Amino acid sequence: MPNEIKMVVFDMAGTTVDEDNIVYKTLQKAINEAGFDFSLEQVLAEGAGKEKKQAIRSILARYENIENEGLVDSIYESFRQQLDQAYEREEIVPQKNAEELFRALKERNILVVLNTGYDRITAQSIIDKLRWKEGEQIDALVTASDVPENRPYPDMIHFAMKRFNITDGSQVAKIGDSTIDIKEGQNAGCGLNIGITTGAHTVEQLETANPDKIIGDLIDVLSLLDEVTA
Questions:
Q1: Residue 1 has what pLDDT?
Q2: What is the pLDDT of residue 230?
Q3: Distance of alpha carbon 149 from alpha carbon 143, whole angstroms
Q4: For 99-125, how does the pLDDT look when each residue is reduced to its tens digit (9 = 90+)?
Q5: What are the chain's domains?
Q6: Which residues contact 95 (CB under 8 A, 6 or more apart)?
Q7: Bridge partners of 160?
Q8: Which of 6, 58, 116, 193 is found 20 to 30 A from 26 (Cα to Cα)?
């Protein structure tokens, strides 16, 4: 385990942003409008945490053995349009204790980074709606469109590390609500990989990725950091 955590990388939807699974409900709707009948549980199980076009590919391949990039593109465009409308219409709020945790980490001089399977335009619209700003509540936002490869590849975390001149992955903690978040952190060599049960995946699902810890409340991150540095 690391001696010192210098950066915590948080997933957005389901982890630091409480949006009642708007993303995956919208994704389910867009896919099913193309002639399918997937349950929300299926969409969450296969798509959670992934870049959203990749999520569509994975869902179609996993449950229907379909590989059709034209179909993927069509569903994705419908999803993007519907998601923009949903985010304008529905309430989006910080996850419980998210802002309190951000402040506590800043008091400890620990960097707060958000990363997400959204493209930058969508992610920035959410950040703006929450009134979070880089340099204030958070130190950086890294999105799926900023890097060559998305989760479970470590590119987004490495991108953030490079920005802040962190060369040792063991000084980074990753927190997310899906197994692919945990795998991303492991692939980046993060010293602490934490699953949280406030979003897409259950405790049982998270356990399949072998996280270091599973928590139910973001504020529990502080005690985990204390354990690491003790």
A1: 45
A2: 64
A3: 11
A4: 999 999 999 999 999 999 888 988 998
A5: 7-19+92-229 (3.40.50.1000), 22-89 (1.10.150)
A6: 14, 15, 16, 17, 18, 198, 218
A7: none
A8: 193
Q: Whole-angstrom Cα distance, residue 36 to residue 59? A: 11
The secondary structure of residue 192, as a DSSP letter, is E
Helices (H), 90-202: 98-107, 120-130, 155-163, 179-187
Residue type, 145: S
| Strand duo 7-11 + 172-176: pairing | parallel
Nearest alpha-carbon partner for 193 in 10, 59, 6, 3: 10
- Residue-level length of the chain: 230
Prediction pTM value: 0.86
Q: Give residue 34's pLDDT.
A: 96
- Which of the two residues, 193 and 89, has the higher pLDDT score? 193
28-45 residue pLDDT tens: 999 999 999 999 999 988
The two beta strands, 140-142 and 172-176, are unpaired
**Per-residue DSSP letter, 18:** E
Q: Is the dihedral of CA 188, 190, 195, 198 positive or negative?
A: negative
Residue 229 has pLDDT above 80, yes or no: no
d(CA 51, CA 28): 15
